[in-house]
Amino acid sequence: MEDIINIARELIKRDDIEAIIGYEKGRAPFQTVPFFARTPEDCDKLIMNSLCVNNLVSYINQFSGKVAIFVKPCDAKALVGLLQEHQIEREKLHIIGINCQGALNPKKLRNAIKGRMVKDWSINGDKIKVYYESGEEEFNIKDFLLDKCPACDTRTPPIYDELLGDEIKTADLPELLARVKELEKLPAAEKQQYWNEHFERCLRCYACVKICPLCYCERCFVENASPQWIDKSNNLKSNKAFHLIRAYHLAGRCIDCGECDRACPMDIPLRELNLKMRKSVEEHFNYVPGKDIDVPPPLSTFKKEDPQDFIR
Amino acid sequence: MELILKKEKLKEFLEQLSKNYEIIAPVKEGELINFKSVKDFTKVVMTYQKSIKSPKEFLFPQCEELYKYKFSGKDVEIKPAEVEKKPKAIVGIHPCDAVAIKILDKLFGWDYKDELYFERRNNTLLISITCNTPDWSCFCTSVEGTPYDADGTDIHFTDTGETYYIEGKSEKGKQILQDNNNLFTEAKKEDKDKVEKIKKEIMEQVPVKFDIKKVTENMDCIFDSKLWDRISVKCIHCGACAYLCPTCHCFDINDEGNYEEGKRIRCWDACMFGHFTKMAGGHNPREDEKTRYRQRIFHKFNYYIKNFDTISCVGCGRCIAECPAGMDLVKTLQLIEKGAEHE
Amino acid sequence: MSSLYVPHKAIIHQVIEESPDTKTFRFKLADEKLHKEFDFKPGQFCEFSVFGEGESTFCISSSPTRKEFLDCSVKKVGKVTETIHKLRKGHTIGFRGPYGNHFPVDELKGKNLIFVGGGIGLAPLRSLIQYVIDKREDYGKITILYGARSVADLCYERDLKKWYKAPDTDLILTVDPGGETPEWAGKIGFVPTILEEINPSKENAKVITCGPPIMIKFTIQALERMGFNPEDIITTLEMKMKCGIGKCGRCNIGHIYVCKHGPVFTYAQIKELPQEF
Amino acid sequence: MANIGVFVCWCGSNIAQTVDVVAVAKAASEFKDVVYSVDYKYMCSSPGQNMMIDAIKQHNLDGVVIASCSPRMHESTFRSAAVLAGFNPYMVEMANLREHCSWVHDNREEATKKAIELVRMIVAKVARNAPLNKIYVPVTKRALVIGGGIAGIQAALDIANGGVEVIMVEKEPSIGGHMSQLDETFPTLDCSQCILTPRMVEVATHKNITLYAYSEVDSVEGFVGNFKVKIKRKAKCVIEELCTGCGLCTQKCPVGKKGEVMNEFEVGMAPRPAIYIPFPQAVPNIPVIDRENCTYFKTGKCGVCAKVCVAKAIDFNQKDEIVEEEVGAIIVATGYDLYPKDSYGEYGYGKFKDVISGLEFERMVSASGPTKGKVLRPSNGKPPKNVVFIKCVGSRDEKHGISYCSKICCMYTAKHAMLLHHKCPGAKAYIFYMDIRATGKGYEEFVKRAMEEEGAVYIRGRVSRIYKRKDHLVVVGADTLTGKPVEVEADLVVLATAIIAKDGADKLAQILKISYDTHNFYNEAHPKLRPVETNTAGIFLAGCCQAPKDIPDSVSQGSAAASKALALFSKKELEREPLISRVNEEFCVGCLACQPVCPYNAIEEKEIRDRKGNLIKKVAHINEGLCMGCGACAVTCRSGCIILEGFTNNQIFEQINTFENLISKFEPTPEETVAKK
Amino acid sequence: MEEKSAKTDWEPRIVGFVCNWCTYAGADLAGTSRLKYPPNVRLIRLPCTGAIDPLFIVKAFQSGADAVLVSGCHPNDCHYTSGNYHARRKLTVFKDLLEFTGLDPKRFWMSWISASEGQKFASFMEEIVTETKKLGPLKGYNN
């Protein structure tokens, strides 16, 4: 923690840095929220731990000047995507890479404490310690990891200007696409039922779109009134259309930060759709997003020998 | 009129009620609690922390048809929408959500009475329940509400452990209790005391976070404060807060259909969306995130008072708990409480 | 049910091309009886529907003193207006209204009226001008200053000719520099400049102005310089509207709902509002 | 909201027989926006067109739907007619009631129902059409001809003679192509060189032609009328201006004497030096140094050529050079290659010296060839007695070779048989064939002559294998006419190997952005009606790069391509269809996902600046000269900021949406009925 | 819905998005060759398969299509050189997504049909209609 405050303090003193994008502690137990430090004093509020879940890169373009940003591997992969798609200028960024061993799901933790009032919490190694009004309790971090984390193969950001700690290699990860494969096995009718139940719930609040670091369109297709491809009514028909196209637009681009999943107030498993697209793009075109800035996105290009078994 | 209902008799009570009413009650959907039209009353969850959506959608649906149109030759045929006539009973509504309905009444009733809303409203029975499981985001007590005071509802429940303590609030509510007399027993003094104790305990769980009087007083001089720039940066401009809010009521009117026929619908809209106030020519009076967030806060804590003599926030905390970007209304109001100078 | 939002059918009777991007649609409510009973005041607006496209808000640009038809003038700016521009005689549209407040026609009685309009901003003024001309004896001297970017952009040519001949009425036309044609006999210059040039008397006078925001801004500045009281300057505001009846929540400026409390405001009232329009 | 007129065509009985056209017109009259609906016997006839023109005026129409045949048939007819009525042609659309309905269905009721829906879809589309105006682009009046074979030469000369400048790019050191390798040509047996050489010289000396030999097209940018071409001029290491073409250097060059470098022109049958002129009549008649085999370049020592050159024309320091040319049209005449030698193992090509290709035979019989016109067995240099010719080697063989017919082999094999007869009196020609295809003028007679007068033995059947027996080759096959096996003891076997696309044809196609088929032959715009145009405006095809051809065909195509180019140059400005993509800059975020999908490189990054010059944002911009209107960018844009004029999202949307109409929304859906109860 | 499928006279509705140069022309050829196929298909003509947005397909399902067909030029034959390759990529992943969310794979068809393959067009239409009939009306897209 000292580290990041010191780094931030040094950076903010530089003339060319307008703000430092990081996290501060939120009011709720286990909550961290995005924070923008503009003065050395602000920097003292910065924190960095495995409860820092938000993907911060979408905030970069809120600032006109150069910013420094703390990035976890997820955020860094999003950066790669944005650089690839000309959405941010590399020169206007100072990237501080943070290794990640998996982030925690604050909601899960809140459920675990069963409504007790939390005074404070701290993270030590693979344990999280919770201090109540009276007494304290310790939990194993690995029981509270976000769904995306256990199978994540990127523990060190793929892009950074400075890295806190040493690069981490991964081994023996669980299957990332296990859930997708499980769903794929369902008969068509069950798949449809599964997704219809989820889509039916959709509020169309577009939190999934707005939180997504790669959904940067000035006008989302769903907002396009000419023509109004997707009705504004939130019925199954248009919700489904919205989600299908949303997922399709992220095909070959989604870097699996899971922010949509987290943002969705209605608990729609959006990440499963995104992972399916990831699987599809990887299987057919041998492409994994978030790795290489200089390669065009897979759906903007082609190979003559692309598979076409399904085409008659 | 205070009665006691054994918990196991709730099902029976709802069954009786369902003879005349469609029962809307909280049920579990995955991890979420949500109000739904219920037929299997064993699924009803009366004691819950926070329903993900407020039941406002049963009075003011997210999307509703205003009328249908159909071209025939050069002429258009128009067929106004009709609201289904069957009365609804919203069971298990928390006091905050119940208060919200009163707030909505004002807006839909001023000048032009919104018939679609009131047709439903007048056909809806509200059965509230004391909220005994507030969470960190709740702040009803800070906005002049309580977790147990359900003004404006017809019947109020309080979960006392083994039984429900039931108060008939409106004439309609009292009549219903009367009609189902056989299900209840008369409440005794110790029951009453118990309920009072519960209320006190819950109040302690929802400490007052700010002085709402001071906040509203300060609003008028804080419009141009730099505060808004600071707070709003984090906001990602989704509509989650507005759509989950029990008092938000902004809507959009749209035509849906094909080239020859369709319907005009109104559906919820949110002032956080960029295109909300964007005019056809491209001008947008609330172009940036700052003005949009400020509009939201001002609408709830200033404009609404000026027009309707009440704030339009009930402290349910949904906007805080569900904000994906960690925006915190309580923090904003605390800043406003401190005044413009403190930034 | 839901009659609040259900429009009346109206039939386009005539389409008048006012300028390259503006057309006036003259229509009649399909229901004869309803049309006869229909009443409104100058300055009020309506919701104009093209079924399948949506609704748009326009002021009624005709005067309630001339009841045969209702007029709406529409500038092509977006999806709905683009479709409106495709309307022809005989097409059916939807109409609901009138909504909002109106010009204080009673308060204006006996006053000298100065109308300052720019471009399509003349539309709401036209309703009032026709009204006062039709009730000529109730009002004092009338001065109309109307300008547009170019000669082609001047709207309501036929009305302008009539106003020119109306009793005790001054009509001054101007076009922005560069917008004139060789035959142009009117003034050349921006509306606020010409306003100061003709310098109408502020005695017993009320100014009613409408036009593009930038014109209004400088016109008001000019009027203040000329000593007009903010209370005597009247204008109409434009905000995005959907319902038109104070529900949908997007036309408010501060606690003021433009659709309910407006669209007509005095400059004195506007000064009190948050500058968010 | 529009005034749309619907014109339902009977097409005589073609439509009316199956579709109740009166019912269609009546149904259409009730569609939204349709103010006029009529049926007529022949809409495309002059009275039919006039009917449309009159209705446009009379009913103040702003949209027209012609419900008749395929738009591919008559769209331009009706659009042109609309122009006569002063009506925007792009407000006319067609519903295909003939090819897509009346001709493919029997049931009158169903076909009529479908016809009504087809009309409804197009009515809905037209209601969303917007008037469009043609795009005009200036034309650079210069042409580029790629390839200096006979097709390219013909095209270049025709254009140059038409008074237009031509740039000719030839890959080899000399123009002339394959034709210059031939001896005599069928069916007249006139000397190939004799007729070709004057034309080659004409190219070299024509004031309107600039010849870049030993050069290649490096890149092409721009669009019809405005191409920018970069041409790589490979270093010849000989200064052209100084060289007198005396040939002394080529004689003194120490390389090639031992046969270590073989002459490509002689199909590898003779050696050549490192500095060489491919053949004596080469144009330009200037040697080039083959740097790969030149001793000086390999070791830094030698320089004999420089020493003997009186004109001091040798320059070892010459570098490849890129020249830029601006042209308005491009003619591609890059020719062909032959099916690779080693592909037919069973015929022993490469294994047996006495198995040669047709082209090798051609060089052998040529007076200027390696054997000075004598037919000799490569194995022992003696004249052969029996020569077997095998046709369709590679051609018409889907299993091992290619599916198509190489077109010229039947004829040249007959010619070879004759030449053998002339040059080697007493030698016998055996020809194994599948069919004899002799469809040109005088061709059939020519083949007949070979059979009857020149004694060629035609055996119908395929050769199964060739093996060596002592000094001879035994050709084993079957005569499918008699059904008996055949064995010929041959001294020489000549294979009529297939014509295949030029090596690198696909690469050039990608540079030019023209399409090519699975065999890498270039695609013409229309197989019948636009045989010399490509789908890329301003690029034309001539000769074998499009498909196998004989000389007369190549020449006529060269002339045809030239006339297309000249027609293009006859206008000051080019008129282009406005059906191209446009970017909505208000919402474009400049992700440029559209850029790589554009096959024409028409998408550029554009900076949007405010009045003070500050950069607001970068957006995609479409060069309307380059855009061909494929629409790939439009669907790649996630936020729908790109629309394709003529096929806008609004138009497509309405077409799809109209579909929903079957269930009227005024009848309650089952759910609604239940809810009401 | 149930009511609809119970009807025996139900006919599937099929929307085809086809390119102007190959499949539309192939359909024309089917016409000029007088080949017969069921009348359930409505073709929407586009310049190229590369100009087909998955939104079109979703919209078609929403609008009551029981099956959707996309067809264009064979690889290498694209009038615009590469539109069909781009379409192939885009629709490969989109098809995966449709199937993942429960659409029967037999409701989305893609094919290469050239201008000379009138016969292929006709028999393909025949097959799609037959297969779709087996599946019954599509549910879950049109509510």
Task: Explain how this protein is built.
- The complex is a heteropentamer of chains A (312), B (343), C (277), D (677) and E (143).
- With 312 residues, chain A is of the alpha/beta class.
- Chain A folds into three domains: 119 residues, no CATH class; 39 residues, no CATH class; 125 residues, no CATH class.
- Chain A contains ten helices and eight strands.
- In chain A, strands 2-1-3-4-8 form a five-stranded mixed sheet. A three-stranded antiparallel sheet of chain A has the order 5-6-7, with no helix packed on it.
- In chain A, helix 8 packs across helix 10.
- Helix content of chain C is 22%, strand content 31%.
- Chain C is globular, with a radius of gyration of 18 Å.
- Chain D folds into four domains: 130 residues, Rossmann fold; 176 residues, 3-Layer(bba) Sandwich (FAD/NAD(P)-binding domain); 162 residues, FAD/NAD(P)-binding domain (3-Layer(bba) Sandwich); 64 residues, Alpha-Beta Plaits.
- Helices cover 28% and strands 24% of the residues of chain D.
- In chain D, helix 6 links the parallel strand 6 and strand 7.
- The radius of gyration of chain D is 32 Å and the shape is globular.
- In chain D, 54% of the residues are buried.
- The C terminus of chain D is likely disordered.
- Chain E has a single domain, classed as Rossmann fold.
- A four-stranded parallel sheet of chain E has the order 2-1-3-4, with helices on both faces.
- In chain E, helix 2 packs across helix 5.
- The chains are: A alpha/beta (312), B alpha+beta (343), C alpha/beta (277), D alpha/beta (677), E alpha/beta (143).
- The interface between D and E is large, with 56 and 52 residues.
Rounded mean pLDDT score of chain B:
90
In the CATH scheme, the class of chain E would be Alpha Beta
First CA to last CA of chain E: what distance? 9 Å
Largest interface: D-E, 56 and 52 residues
Largest sheet of chain E: 4 strands, parallel
